[in-house]
Amino acid sequence: ALVDGSFLVEIPGEYAFRLSSDDGSQLWIGGSMVINHDGLHGAEAKTGVATLTAGAHPFQVKFFEHQVSEKLLLEWRVPGEDDFVVVPKTAMQSQWPAKRAITSGTKRVAAAFREKHDVGPEPSGPHNVLTDGQIAEGWTQLFDGEQASSAWRGYRKDELPAGWVVRDGALVRQGGGDIITREQFDDFDLYVDWKVEKGGNSGIFFNGGEEGGAIWETAPEMQILDNAGHSDGVSALQSAGANYALHAPPVDSSRGAGKWNRVRIRVQGDHVQYWLNGQKTADYVIGSDDWKARVAGSKFTHMPMYGTKSKGHIGLQDHGDPVSFRNIRIRRLDSQPES
Predict the structure, then answer these.
(1) Domain boundaries in the chain?
(2) What residues pair up with 205 in beta bridges, in sequence order?
(3) Which residue from 26, 50, 168, 314 has the least number of CB within 10 angstroms?
(4) Considering the entire predicted model, what is its pTM?
């Protein structure tokens, strides 16, 4: 289960949170994990702290139940108080509309895949290098297989979080929150290889800004997912290769957990295209009537900055699961005609 919304903070300062659950749960605030209470266990509590300014702070509570008995309780201790209390409803706000129009007729909960596309073997090497031809065409690396801090930093941070490490030529997420490119990009062509473990979830953002509490308040996301092992995989809108929650891939072209996938994201003006393992998975125009209708029917409808930036940072998501990246290369298209 996933609960998302915003905490409405009146008193700035250090807030202590206590998350009790049976079984696993996590608390995320502003794109950073505050409490990791994952795993199989009985009704137990775990605490964490976060320094919050006055205003709205987006949060997510993730929870799962295994077999019998269940519990989920979120409490906080506000600055100046001694005791934990249940977070009051007046201090929380939903991202979803209060009322949503529903037409008559039979409905599916979410679009489901009807076809699995065979994409063949994993991408071959050499990895994290550019050919002379690619260099002549204007491609540059955003990761060389040895270090990442020259091109990447934490979201709303100056340095790369320690939880993102280089291992066996891959940039591996172990924790620390979302990361973004130090540079901003307008029109571009981007290639990335990714690999998740069983049940893994992550994403690639673009046109991201740092005005909000999380990058997904501004940036569209190409979903990264173990379709077969994660509950989001039952919905094509939340599957690997989707424009998350807005545009579903026509087929499942992902490779499973433990295997490398190659994606391409091309952005030119407002025209955006995604490919996953050579299969086009999304093709849309930001700001079009179709785009506006999809956003209005999604959780993004109350995020006024979502999809409005013409340039911004590229981001890699820390969704709480191990994920690896390699072969990250980009070519600016700012002065090229659309093809």
Answers:
(1) 2-91, 132-332
(2) 221, 315
(3) 168
(4) 0.70
Half-sphere exposure of 36 (CA within 13 A, CB side): 10
Q: Please, what is the average pLDDT of the chain?
A: 90
2.170.150.70, 3.40.50.1970, 2.40.440.10, 2.60.120.560: CATH of 132-332: 2.60.120.560
Q: Which amino acid is at 212?
A: G
Q: Which residue has the tokens 């981007």?
A: 190
* Whether residue 107 has pLDDT greater than 70: no
**132-332 shares the fold of 2-91:** yes
Q: What is the C-alpha separation between 198 and 195, in angstroms, rounded?
A: 10
Phi, psi at 313, each rounded to 5°: -85, 150
Q: What is the pLDDT of residue 281?
A: 97
* Rounded distance between C-alpha atoms, residue 314 and residue 294, angstroms: 22
CA distances from 64 to 1, 39, 102, 230 (A): 6, 9, 29, 12
User: Distance between CA 321 and CA 36 in Å, rounded?
Assistant: 11
Spell out the residues 6+ positions from residue 20 whose beta carbon is closer than 8 angstroms to its own.
Answer: 43, 44, 45, 46, 71, 72, 73, 74, 75
The CATH number that domain 2-91 falls under is: 2.60.120.260
